Every structure is written in structure tokens, then in C-alpha cells.
Amino acid sequence: MEENKISYSEEEEQKSLLPFLEEKEKEGKAGQFSNVEEHWEEYKPEEELAGGGKTGNKDASEGVQDKSDSSMESLEHYLGDINNIQAMKYTDRICILTLQRNLKELNDIAKQKELAVQKARDKLSTCQLQIKVLAKQLEYVDIEIEKEEEAGNVTALSRLQAMHRRLCTELEKEKDFELKMALTLKENIKEEEAQKEYEERHKKVVEDAKRNHEKAVCFLRKSMARIHEKNAKEEVKTREHMERRIQAVLSLKTSITSNRAKLQTLQVWNKAMAFEAKKQEMKMREAILAEGGNVAKEIFLRKRLLEHEKEKQASREQQKSRKIEIVSRILQEKASILKQKKSQSCTKAIKSGGKLEDSSLWRMKTWRYIEKTCKHSAGAISQPWCSSSACSSAGERTASVGEISEKIPHDVLCESGEDEKERDKTLVEPEFPGLWSQECDLRKISKEETEPKQLATRVKEKGIFEKKMEEFQTGIFHKQMVSGRECKGRTFYSKPSCIHFKDFDVGQIYKKKIVLTNASYSVNFCRLVGMSDWLKDFISIHFDPPGKMSAGMSCEIVVTFKPMINETLEGEVMFMAQTGSFSVPLKCTAKRCMLALDKELIDFGSRVVGETISRTISLTNSGALGTRFKVQTSAGDSRTCRATAKSSPRRMVTRHFSDCVPEKEVSNSPVTSVVEKKEQICADHSEEMTYCVAQVEQHRTETSLSSSSAEQVGQDVLNSRSHLDTDSACNSVELSPEETPVEIMLGKVTEGEIGPFSSVKLQIIFVPAIPGDVRAEFVIMFDNADCKPLCFSAIGVSIDVPVWVPNPNVDLKICMYDRLYQDCIVIQSRAKVTLRLKFEVCKELSKHMELLPKTGYIQAQSSFSVQLKFLPRCSLPEDAGSYFNEETRVLEVPVTILIVDKAKKVNFTVHAIVTTSDLEISPARINFGYCTIYEAVQANVTLTNKSILPQEFGFVGLPEFVEIQPNDGLGILLPLESLTLDIIFKANETKEYSFELTCKSEINRQFKLSCKAVGVHPPLELSHSLVQFAATALNGVSTATLYVMNSHVSVNRFTHAVPRIGNGEVAPVGPTSFEFRVPEDCPVTITPSVGTVLPGKKSLIQVSFRPTLSDQLIREEAVRRLCRAAATGAEIQKRKKDEEGKKLSTAITKQLVRDVGSKYLTSLCNSEQPKSEELKPDSDAYMAAQAFLMRNFSGRFEKYIIPCFVASGHIDEKKGSENLSCSPYNTLYLELHCPAVAPCVVVTSDNGKNTVNFGDVAVGHRMIKRITIQNISPEKLELGFSVLNPNGPFLLVRPVGMLEPGENKTLVISFCPNENKWFFETLDIRTAKTTLTLSITGCGVMPTIVCSVEEVLNMGYVIAREKVTSTFKIQNTSTLTLRYSIQLDSLSSTRDKDQQRLPSFITSSLQRTEFVGTQNYNGLSVFSIFPTEGEIVAGKSQEFIVTFSPDHESLYYSDRLKVVLFGKNVAHVIHLKGAARDRPMFVEGGIPLDVPIESLAVTSPVSSPEALKGELQEPVKSILLVLEYIEGEGSPVPAMTELKVGAIQTAQFASKKNVEFSFDSLPLLQQKGFTVESVKGTVEPGQVKCISVSWVPPADFRADDPLLVTALLTLKGDIKESYQILFMAKVVSAYAPTK
User: Fold this and answer.
1) What are the C-alpha distances in Å from 40 to residues 45, 55, 77, 216?
2) Whole-angstrom Cα distance, residue 1263 to residue 1312?
3) Cβ partners under 8 Å of residue 995, min gap 6
4) What is the three-class DSSP state of 1453?
5) Quick one: average pLDDT of 1213-1218?
6) Collapsing DSSP states into helix, strand and coil, what is residue 1044?
7) Distance in angstroms (rounded) separating the CA atoms of residues 834 and 839
8) SS3 category, 1200
9) What angle do CA 846, 852, 854 make, to 5 degrees?
């Protein structure tokens, strides 16, 4: 058997090793196929190794070891070669070593398996041999048994039989063992076959992998070839592209060269043309002078005439444009009328093959021809059929034609291809001769349209149509009514509100999606009606009607735009809703240029003649279309204007710059002629001269903007001079273009291309040449006709001084007092001689500022440098006077450069802002007070920079016990900035400190700060003065531990530091007490908070942090939520009131009801608004508010400083710390950092309560509760749980492992108490960051009841086949509701099994345990209970009704009633008894002598008639009365017993007489000492008569012989019954031991 067990263990070991073997083989397989394509050659030996391992395994299963050994040797040889290779990867070596180790393990396992198989085979052969031997022995024993039986040798026979049994047993065991070994071998064979199949599959997989690798290599080669070919093609393309670019650059270079040549030629031609124009002007001037006329006047008149002609031409063009607009409007009206007419006949027109029978279509073609003719002949007025208003400018005509073409009805365009070709042709000959033979007025209206009758009919039809439409709409559209009021807002909103296709290209397709949202207050629908007519050719809409849409729902619409023309389109998309129609605007914007300048005026300021100043102006294109631009001076104003003196309000004064310029010089310029003409007009009104010149300037600007001439000619310099002798002379002096230098000119960029959404910077250069004011006007022209020219101006002032300062304003910026500042002043000279200069500073600032040298010589046309030194003193504000502004601290010093020889002055100004360098420390003194050596005291000081310059500062030379933060007391203060610094003092010994801190500024100024402190060494110390709790979730707990240590063991201050205050007395050595004072609202608990520490000892302190939400915050949130709920309820009630008010007849009644209802609801809401103090913590509102705040908790960080008071001595347990006096200077402080965060996991069930209260549960019973938890964090959580008490009543039935974000899961916790007491435990749900603590409570209650019937309920005597009832009560005296059930033993499920036992009457009375007595013959239960199950509330009672219903006569009806609580515990047992008689009489008492269990055979009772006929010859029943007389007591007491004779009251025998009883043999009873109290008597129905029997032993009584006397008791009623009464009497000693 031991060998059998060993084989089993080996077999199990093999089975357990088989998965490991397969796992190792899978790992080898995984190693083979990793990175097959990249490292096939490197991993090929690994495949061989794996293959060798598998082969070895297979051979091991077959019993062959050679291959495995060879594979092992090959592996070692290969690994030895690999170790010699330096280039092999480290990871590959690790992998090979791992494979080697695995292969060795597999080889060992294979050997063990082979050995196990061999052992099994040996055991099997041994077993078979043993079976044969046992079989032979058994045959031999059988033969011997037969022999001994024949011989009759009993002893030998028994021995041989025992041997036979032993051999049989051994044989059976061997056979079983053989069977098991056979099964083991079969399983091994199956495993070998499975291993063979696995290796075959593995070989196939390896071969497939090799083939796949070859395919992958082939595919990779092809792919690489394709990639190389593609790269070669791309390289060829790149070369070709570079060659093309080189050619383009060369061609661009040649074109630039040719353009330069052309430009030079054009400039020469322009100069020649200008010279020719000048010659002709001079000839005309000479001719006029020869005739003796006024040249200026004649030129002015000619220019005025030309201007008048231009104005006439402009007015004509304006009239034409207005007429064209009128015609376009008429055409629009006609087109709309034609569209209505053609809408009915469009189908007929299509069927007729494109032949237009209506003359209106041909009229439209005629109008098109008119438009084309007008377009080609711009300015032609000679056509007889076209009025003067039919022609306009090209731009306006194009616009009008575009508008007309857009307004053509869609049905007119429904023509055939031939008609379209005809329409494209120009109508050379008219189709209708009458149309061309006479003049046609476009504004003429036909007579039919002007007849009054038709007009009246049309107006009437229009009114009827509008009325019908209104009726139709009232039938379809429904008003939107909300709360009894009509809502007139939009019912649908679109997103976006406008469908805008921006910057489209012709031929492309654009799509946009819009969302329509039902913004009404009810269900609505939306239907697409159409769109604007002029959009139908370009816009298509895809819209699936969604049907009825609820409020807030939306639908989508896809709008497709395919532009065919490059024009801006605007229209709308119309929809129909249940509440009316609405539309969404649609706009299609073509690409356009949007050009703008960043400024329109460039002011160069005052500049000295000879300087060169440059400014830039930006031209920005914010549109999607680029264009070409060109910058030029304004036409007719190409020379800069100059005025040397400002004009007076009435006159303009002119100064001559050169005497060689003639006063009357004639100009060809049209602007000049206009000026001259205006001067002539204003000759008689000299006071309006300035107004005239202003008009000329304004007109010149307008002309420059509207003119299309691009000639660049210098602008005439207009100078007006007033003569004192003549009153009406207004002459202008002009300079020729050659003599007037161009001072304001353009830079290099004058033209170019500006792309979309880009900008170009233009350079304007100012080179002042002549003193005076200079102004130039420029205009930017664009190739795009839609872009209007942009104008800008440039102004400057030229000044002429022999010496000037290039920088007339010397700005020294911000300077500090008592600091030296220097600057170099450069002076330029344009004089041709050497000048002597003298530099002067005002007297007020001579102490603070000086120029070196004070006198100097400047060479001709050179520069001279002067050194400026500025050293502001503190007396500068008093010395400077008006040059210094004390509020702004600005200093302006005028400095004069005096030219000594020419007595001229040149002024320049020195500007500076003078500020102080002070730093203010507030407060100037710090008293840190008493500071213990275990803590640091912090004081705040404010460092203020009084300067308007930033200053660096630093506290230097700090003592080792002082620290300044931030940045270690170093930093930079911005102007007028105040910085709060933390001065941290940490006493290192007990003494009084007094020291100063020094703050230095960057200019080495020092500022002092005085400090004082007292060092204190307390008697106790804390192991940690700072506790940083981890982030703790709400309602969670974080705990930290520290020690309070008493290291004061000696008062010798020379050996170690002793506790004392400053230089005071040393604290006594002894027990020292401490007390932590935690604030009331602090969520921190310290245990123990009070204690005493002996010298050299320490006390453990535990600090717990329990963050919770503020009770007041929760109450406020609860009140807000209740108010919102009340407001919502009030709104609902108000709506109901409004709906009820709508049913009233008049509007007045509605208003009254609404007002009364609103007032009632308002008062109701105000009256029912709860108060925060009234809310209970266990209310639903409170718990909901707490859960809401917990979910939305954003976290908080709080710091608490807990004082620990220290006093010498023991703390009295009764008085506490009142008997000790502590010094406030010895107080220790514990700083707590308490971060509170929102919990990752919250409880969502039971209003978010973290307490699981099972309440009262019966002992031994189990209650289950489910708690739902939710992950409110954005991360996936892995939960862990603390261990509950394994011997406790709580059990975590269903834990949760993982929680996804937002996921809810349920925990199942059970409670099964085993004692009658309260139970409490905590369950910690741990996550990576926080911990959720659940408090689990429950009370085990022992269920107790009180029954009104204790043990036996006797139902008494009943007539057979009648019923009697009785009641009893059970009261629940426990604190929980009891679930009960009533069980009867007669109805027990084990009743049938119990009846199979021996009858109880066979056993003795002491061994009888059955309580079920006689039962009914009819199968129904004798006793029945109501109710049988239910619940009894705590403190209440339940009444039960017991019914006794026997069906035959018996005196031994009995049953047992059990009160079972919760289906388990039997709380109370009641024995039910009852007796049944066929007659209404019975005798009870004594000891019955019959059998209490009835016979199994049912005997039919004797019928009553037979009983009446005959009389009983012998007693029916016998009753034994036992009387025991106690002997040995003081006074003899007779032995007493009694009999009961009763009559049953029943309706069945109601008319019968009473029951009579009598005793016989009375003398004999009296002789024996028996005394019967009632010998005869009568018993009424329902009554019981007690007959007392007493016995006193007679004189001749022998104590050792019991007395037995027989008497007959006769009962007479409806029948006669007799009972044999046996009187047994005996004497019992009072001192005899009782059993």
C-alpha cells in the first residue's frame, strides 16, 4: 500500500509538472517568433535549441535519451561558441542562458518521468506475479479445507478458513493495485501521444515561420527596390525643377534689365514732354503779355472754364446713373410680374421645344442687347432709341447690368440650347421692325398698366389675396402660449445664425452644415419652403424633415454652394414652422481686396536743414485677393507746398525766397489755373482770402483722388503775398520745378504686389533744404478697379541755424541724488568759417550741472563735443526753483550755446527725473520676545523702495541664529515697491539676545534693523515639532505619532544645557507634566492630551486628523436646496393655478385668480422656508447636502499650531492640571499641516452615509446589507480592504477589486451576532491616494417572550365529534420585531419516521419521550392553532386560538406546541391535552390502569341502543388511588387524595338529567381507615364534583403490608357507568430517603 501511495504521488507530480512543461515550451516558442524579420539569423540557433529541447522531451517520453543528450551537448557547444563572440547583444545572451536553464529543467523532468514509468512497469509486473502466487495459495487452501471437513477437524478447519479469508483480501487488494497501475500506464501513454501531436504541430509552426520569413525577405527586397526607384525618380524631378528655377531666374534678370532700359527711356520722354509743355506755356504767356493782358487772369479763366466743363460732364454722368437705376427698378418689377405669369405656362414652354411664343421673353432679349450696347459705347448719346440717361460710367453700368441679370426670373432661363446660342449673339437686325423704327422711352408705361379700372381691380385682388393668406395662416399657424401668455420670440435658432461662404473660387464646391434648434416651449416641426430666386442656380440644400421636434431638440441641414460667377450674393433660406415662417440669411462673398493704411499723416517734426529723416507707413491687405499697387504724388500737386509764415485769419502773408523768380509766372497746371481763377473771384473780397485758399486745397485733394492721370510732375509752390498799397491784389509767386528741391520723397519701394492677408511697408524720406513748413500729398493707386485710391500726407518743418544740436532734448533719464551722471553733447556747424562758442547754464543749477569746456571753437562744417556733468545734491529742490517740479520730480534745465561773433543763441534742454535712493524698513525695531530653543519665531518687516528706480538690496553679516526669507534676504525692489520680509529667529542657547541687522543697497548705502529676544530652554521637548499629514479624504483618518521627552536629569549647567528662561533659575529635576490644548473647531485629536513624563523617559503621543465638512456649511447648502425645491413646487402650483384660471370666462377673473394664487404661493414659500438650525443631522436634506458638498469638494489646506503647556510636578487625577502652575514661556508648539481632499470613493446608498447600522438583530441570525460605492475620480482605482475581526459578527461577503471612473459597485456585508450586546467595527476601503472608512454597527438581541400558558394547556373533557377552543397570549419583551411560527409535533415532517419505532407503551414510562397521543381517525389534526406565523412588534402581544376537535372517545389526546422564532430558535413549548367522551360524564383522578396508547386496530364503538338494552356485568375502567401516610411527624396528618366527577355541558344532551354518583362497600372502607367525603351526589352539566378521600392507618395495620381495598363507583345519567376504585394505602417514614 505504501508503494501504491508513492506511485500516486509520482503520478500527481507528473500531472502537476505537465502544465509547467507546456509553459516552458510556449516560452521557447515565443522566443523563436519574436523579431523574425529583423533578427532571423541571430535567433536561428535559439530555434534549434528549442527544437532540441522538444525532441529530447519526446524521446524521454519514449524512453530514448540519446537525442536529448546530443541536443544538450550541441547546446553547450553552441553556447561556448557564442560566449567567444564579442559582437553578440547582451539581451541575446540573457535569452540564450534562460533557454539553456529551461532546457536543463525539461531534461530533468523527462528523466524523472521516464524513471517513474519504469518503476510503474516494475510494480505492475511484481503485482501480477504476486496475484499468481496468491491464486495458487488459495487453491491449495481450498483443497486443505475440503480435506479437514471430511476429517472433521474443527480447529484446523477454522485456521484454514481464516487463512482463506486473508488470502482473498490480499488478492482483492493486489487486483485493485493492478487496475490502478494499468490506468496509470494508460494515462502515460495518452500523455506521450499528446506530446507527439504537440511536437508535430510545433514543427509545422516552425516550418510556417520559416516560409513566412522567406516571403517577408522577398517582399522587403521588392519594397526596397521600389523605394530606390522612387527616390531616383524624385531626384530626377528635383533636378529638372532646379533647372527650371534657374532658367526662370535668368529670364527674370533679363526682363529686369530690359525694364530698366524702358524705364530710363520713359523718364527721358517724360522730361522732354514736360520741357515741351513749359515752352508752350511760356509762348502763351508772351503772347498774352504782347497783347497787354493779365496772364494770371487769363490762365485762371481758362482753367475755370475747363473745370466748368468737367463739372457739367460729371452732372450728366450722375443723371445717367440715376436713370439707369430707375430703369433697373422698372425691369425688376416687370421681371417679378413676368415670373408670376410664366409660373403657369412654364410646362407648356418646355414641351414646345424651346420656342418662346410670349413677346415678353423677346423683350428681355432686347433689353439685354440694350445693356450690351450701352456697355460698349460708354458716353455715346447719339442713339435715337436711347435716352441720355441710358449711358453711365463703366463701373456703374456693370453693377446695374449685374443686378438686372440677377433679377431675371428663373423660368425665363428655361430655354433650349438653340435659344441660348441665339441669346449669346449680338442682335444686328431687329426681329420686330417697329421696335427699331421709332424712339423708345424706357420710362414709358403701357396704357393697360395706367388704366384706373385695372388699377382698382388689381388693388382689390391684392386685398382679397392678403385676406385669404391671413385666414390660411390662422388655420395653419398656432400661437405659442406659455403660462397663459403668448411668446413672440423666434421659435427656431440656427447655428451659425448666418450661412456665410467667404472668399470662394468659381468652379469649386463648398458645403456648410447648420443646426436648427427648437427654441419654443412646445413640440414643433420644421419644413423647408425655399430660398431666394437668385440663389437657386448656385445653392442646393439637403434637408431631411425630422418630423415633430420636442423643445430643445435640433436637426441638421447641409447647404452646398457651387459658384458659377465671381459676384457677391445675398439672400435667405425660408422655412415653415408650426408657429410661423422664419428664414436664415445666406451670404456668398467673393474674394476682394480690403486695403488700409495704418496712418494718414506723417509728422517729421522740426528738422535742421541738411538732415535726412526716414519714416515708414504700412499698407495692409486684410482681404483674400491680392493686387498691384503704385505710390505717387497727387496729380496736379506733385511738388511740395511751402509756407514760411502762418496765415492770419484774414490774409495770407508770402515771403520771397529768391529774387530771380518772376512774380508773374504762368503755370500749365490745372490746379494752378483753378487757384488763379479763385484769386480773381476773390479780388473784390479780400477778407475771404483764407477761405478761398482752403477751398483750393480741398479741391486739389479731391481732384488728386478722382483723377486717373499718372504723370509725376513737381507741385507748384503757391505763395500769397499781401501788398500794403493795393487792397485787391492777390498774386501768387511760383518756383520752377528745377529750382525747387524735393524735400519729402518716396523710398525705394514705390510699386509692387501686395498679396492676400499681408502688409507692405513704404518708406518716406524727409531731406529739409529750405527753412519753413513742408507738406506733401501722396496717393496709392491699385490695379484692381474695385479698390479706391488711398491718400496720405507728410509734413515737416525745416529750420536754418549756423550751429545746431542734433539732439536738442538731452534726456538723462532717472538720476539719484549724490550720484554723478555724464553725457556727451554733439554740436554741428553748417557755417563755412570757424565759430567761437560759449556754453552757459542757468545760475540756479550752477552747483549741480556744468559743461566742459565752457568755451570752444567749432571748425567750418564740422562737429564739436561738449561734456555734460550732472551731480544732483540734496538741495536741488530748493536751488532749482521753477525748473524742478517737486510732485513729478522732473527737472528741465535750459542750456544756451552763444555764438560770440554773430551774437546768436542756440538753446537745448536737459531733462532729468531726480529721485532718492532711500530704503525704508518698517518697523525699525523688532522684539521677538521669549523663544524656545526648539522652535523658530518669525517677525515680518516691510522694506520699501522710496526711489522710482529699481534697487538691489541684501542683508549682509547675518548671525547664525537669524534667517531672512525669501531669497535669503537678497533681491531687487521695483520703483516704489514694498516687500514683506520674514525675519526668522531661532535661539541656540538660553540667554538674552540684542543685535542689529544690516541691509545694504547697490550703491553701498546701509540701513540698520535692531532686534531683541530671550532664549528659553523648556523642561520638555517634542520629538517632532512639525507634522505633515498626507492628503486625507473627507471623513477619513490620518494618524501620526510623536514623543514628549524629558531629558532633564541633572541641574549641572556646566556639563550640559539645563532648562531655564533666559538667565533665570534652572528648572527642578523631577516629573514634568504636559497638556495639549486643541481648539474646538480643529479636526485634530491628540491622545493622550494630558500626561506626566519622568526624568529620562518619554511619552508616546498619537495625533489623528479627521477632516469633515463644516456643519454650518452643510446646513446652508441644505437650506438652499430646500428653497430651490420649494420654489420649483411653487412654480408648478402656480402653473396649475394658471391653467385653472384659463377656464374662467372673463379676463378680469383670470387676473384676479392669478394674483391671488401668486400671493398665496409666495406666502406659502416664505412661511415654509426652513431654518438651518432646525435641520437634524439625520434628515434626508442634511445628508443630501453633505453628499453634494463632498462630491464637489475642491480640497483645502489648513495649518494648526497646537500649544503644549509644561509644568513641573505630577498631575492629580481628581483635580487635573489645576494644581500645577505653568510658565507661558515654557510652552511648546506643535505645527500641523492638514491637507484635505475630496474622496476618490464615496458611498452613494443611504444618502451617502458612511455608517452601516444593522440595528437590532436576533442572536444567531444573519442580516445582509448592500452598500453602493462610486468612483468619483477620473482614474481607475484598485481597492483594498482592511481585515475585519475574524471572530466578530461582521463579514465582508462581496468585496470589490477595481472601480472604473464613474462606476458604481455594491459591497455586501453580513451581521450575525452571537451575543446579546452592541458591536462596532470599522472597514477601511483603501485606494492609492485616500482611504474611505465605513463604521459598521449592530446590536445582538436575545429574543425573549412571555407566554400566558407556561407548560400545559388542558382542554378538558369534550363530547366526541364536538369542538372546544381556548386562547393564550405571547408577549414580545425584546426590543426587536419577532418573526414567529407555530409548530405541532403531530404535523412534523419526521412524524412518519418516528412511528416506525417501537410503541411507547412497550418501553417504561421513564423512557417515554413522545408527546403526541391519540389522534383522530379521519386524518385531521386534533389540535389546530391560529395564527400559525407572523410578526410580533417589540412590546406588543399576540393572541392565539387553540381548537380541540376529537372524532372519537379517548382520554389521551395530546400534542406538543412549539413557538419557533425566525425559523430556528424554539422559544416556548406547550403540552396540549384533552379528553373526549361519548357520554356527558367522566371520572378523573388517581392513577389510570389502562394503556395510554391506543391499539393500532380501529375498533368500532358499541352503539348506544345496544348499551341501553344490556347492563354492564363488570367495571369498565379501574382507577387506583394511592394514599401515603407519613409517620414520624409531630402531629399525625391523615393521607389525602381526591376524585373528580364531572358532567360535560353540551347541546347534544341538553334535555337529559343531571349525573348521579354513589359508592358501594362503604363499611369495608371505613373499617380499613378510609373516609369518603361525599358518598352520593349529583353533578349538574358543566360542573365538576370533587370527592375527598382520607386515610388514617388503623390500629392493626402492618407497615410492611400495603393495604388494598376495592370499591365500586356508579355514575347514572342517560346511561349507567361503573368504575372500580382501588384504594391503596401505605405508611411512609418521614425520615426515609427519597429517590
Assistant:
1) 9, 22, 20, 11
2) 7
3) 959, 962, 1011
4) strand
5) 57
6) strand
7) 16
8) strand
9) 75
The amino acid at 585: P
Q: Which of 1241, 1261, 1252 is nearest to 1467 (CA)?
A: 1261
| Residues 6 or more apart in contact with residue 396 via CB below 8 angstroms | 321, 324
Give 230-271 pLDDT, tens digit per residue.
999 999 999 999 999 999 999 998 989 888 888 888 889 998
Range 1097-1126 burial, b when 16+ CB lie within 10 A, else e: ebbebebebbbebeeeebbebbbeebeeeb
C-beta atoms surrounding 345 within 10 Å = 13
Contact assessment for residue 948 and residue 976, using Cβ atoms and an 8 Å cutoff? yes
Task: Give helix 2-33 / helix 40-62 axis angle, nearest 10°.
Answer: 160
* Cell matching residue 827: 554740436
Q: What is the 3-state secondary structure (H, E, C) of 1237-1305?
A: ECCCEEECCHHHCCEEEEEEEECCCCEEEEEEEEECCCCCEECEECCCCCCCCEEEEECCCEECCCCEE
- Buried (b) or exposed (e) across 241-278, using 16+ Cβ within 10 A? eeeeeeeeeeeeeeeeeeeeeeeeeeeeeeeeebeeeb
**Rounded Cα distance, 815 and 835, in Å:** 33
Q: What is the pTM of this model?
A: 0.41
CB count within 10 Å of CB 760 equals 17
Amino acid at 1221: S
User: 1419 exposed, middle or buried (CB, 10 Å; 0-12, 13-18, 19+)?
Assistant: exposed
C-alpha cell read off for 1520: 387506583
Tell me what pLDDT residue 488 has.
62
Dist CA 1015 CA 1060 (whole Å): 9
C-alpha 548/C-alpha 559 separation (Å) is 22
Grid coordinates 358499541 are at which residue?
1502
Closest to 1233 (Cα-Cα) out of 1022, 1084, 1080: 1084
Whether residue 1069 contacts residue 1047, with contact meaning beta carbons closer than 8 Å, is answered with: no
Count of alpha carbons within 13 Å of 792, Cβ hemisphere only? Answer: 24
Cβ-Cβ contacts under 8 Å for 593 (sequence gap 6 or more): 621, 623, 625, 626, 627, 782, 784, 786, 787
Place of cell 518619554: 1098
Single out the residue of 695, 743, 694, 691 nearest to residue 715, CA to CA. Answer: 743
The upper half-sphere exposure of residue 570, i.e. CA atoms within 13 Å in the direction of its Cβ, equals: 2
Instruction: Kindly report, residue by residue over 845-897, the tens digit of the pLDDT.
Output: 888 999 999 899 999 889 999 999 999 998 999 998 889 998 889 999 999 98
* DSSP code, position 1385: G
Q: Quote the CA–CA distance of 664 and 732 in Å, as a whole number.
A: 7
Amino acid identity for residue 62 in this structure: E
How far is Cα 48 from Cα 686, in angstroms, rounded to an integer?
Answer: 120
Got the DSSP string for 808-851?
SEEEEEEEETT--EEEEEEEEE--SS-EEEEEEE-GGGTTTEEE
Strands 978-985 and 1423-1426 come out as unpaired
User: Residue 431 and residue 440: Cα distance in Å, rounded?
Assistant: 15
All three cell numbers of 1619: 368504575
- Residue 1076, C-beta contacts closer than 8 angstroms, at least 6 positions apart: 1086, 1089, 1090, 1101, 1202, 1203, 1204, 1230
